[in-house]
Write a structure and sequence with these properties.
The chain is an all-alpha fold. Helices cover about 85% and strands about 5% of the residues. The protein contains twelve helices and four strands; from the N terminus they run H-H-H-E-H-E-H-H-H-H-H-H-E-H-E-H. The chain has helices at about 1-30, 35-60, 65-90, 95-115, 125-155, 155-170, 170-205, 210-220, 220-235, 235-260, 270-290, 295-315; strands at about 90-95, 120, 265, 295. Helix 2 (about 35-60) runs parallel beside helix 10 and helix 5 (about 125-155) runs antiparallel to helix 10 (about 235-260). It comes from Paeniclostridium hominis. This is Calcium/sodium antiporter. It is a multi-pass membrane protein.
């Protein structure tokens, strides 16, 4: 029964996130927000919504191990499997902005998470630090992408006419209702996942950390995987890396920030080891894209092999 509930929870999480992204994107279009900014913020936050729901629900339930393991597990699943599979399908070019700013920032906050965890605790103050950094990150993204809106506004009368038609077709009450339905699905689904995963862990004698690092992390990362693979198949390869980098940043700053603010979290030795691995994988990603300005098939194969080796280690330790 717990496995069925877990599947239902994942379905609600993924569908809820999908509905929320569609609704939020429509609102952004209505107010003429640049598509690039929509992708970097709304899409990344939408695909990170399952992680947020699970980690916050875990924190409220006192399952701190699952909160941290879910975020750490999701982050290296995103890099090793989402980017690994995507780069096997097609070569992924990386924008200069991602190489110069976004990826180094992800490395910085990964190291910060590791440093703050070394006292075996994430306090409410640590949560506030993460949330402040998250707000600063959003402000910086808005400033760096504000020019794209100006470019769009000067793209000609035809484009303006098309945009006007698109925004007129957006019905705000319906869009707001979709956002609300999406949020309800995310929250309720997150609660089901936490409760059922905890029951599974108890019945099989598994630790909450192991369940969070494997089953829950894989399930909550499905939106990133689906979004990136579809983007690659459509030829929009730059979206794949942007989606993963953005989602990983949100996972650490927003998800763990909120979870720690709600309930201070004890950090186990195992969680610290996993955080070290997550940081190392992020640095490896930076080395690959810095050298080649892209991710190729060989990089993808290396990523997938590393993931399964670590997965085996996680299960037998």
């Amino acid at each position: 029964m717990s496995f069925l509930t877990l599947l239902i929870g994942f379905a609600l999480l993924i569908k809820g996130a999908d509905i929320f992204v569609d609704g939020a994107s429509s609102i952004a279009k209505k107010f003429n927000v640049s598509p690039m900014l929509i992708g970097l913020t709304i899409v990344a936050m939408g695909t990170s919504a399952p992680e947020a729901a699970v980690s916050v629900s875990s924190s409220l339930a006192g399952q701190n191990d699952m909160s941290i393991a879910n975020v750490v597990g999701s982050n290296f699943f995103n890099i090793l499997i989402v980017l690994g599979v995507s780069s096997i399908i097609a070569k992924l070019p990386v924008e200069k902005e991602t190489i110069k700013k976004d990826t180094p920032f992800l490395i910085f906050i990964s190291i910060l998470l590791l440093a703050l965890s070394l006292n075996f605790n994430l306090s409410r103050l640590d949560g506030v630090i993460f949330l402040v950094l998250f707000i600063l990150f959003l402000i910086n993204m808005i400033k760096s992408n504000i020019s794209s809106k100006d470019i769009e506004s000067s793209s000609g009368e035809t484009a303006i006419a098309i945009e006007a038609t698109d925004t007129k077709s957006i019905h705000m009450p319906k869009t707001l209702l979709l956002c609300l339905i999406g949020i309800v699905g995310i929250v309720f689904g997150g609660d089901l996942v936490v409760n059922s995963a905890t029951n599974i862990a108890t019945s099989f004698g598994m630790s909450a950390n192991l369940v969070g690092l494997t089953i829950v992390a894989m399930g909550t990362s499905l939106p990133e995987l689906v979004t990136s693979v579809i983007a690659v198949k459509k030829g929009e390869t730059e979206i794949a890396i942007g989606n993963v980098i953005g989602s990983n940043i949100f996972n650490i700053l927003l998800v763990l920030g909120l979870a720690a603010l709600i309930h201070p979290m004890a950090v186990s030795v195992v969680a610290i080891i996993d955080t070290i691995f997550m940081t190392a994988v992020t640095i490896l990603l930076y080395i690959f894209i810095k050298k080649n300005n892209s991710l190729t098939k060989i990089h993808g194969i290396i990523f997938v092999i590393i993931y399964f080796i670590y997965l085996i280690y996680t299960i037998i330790r």
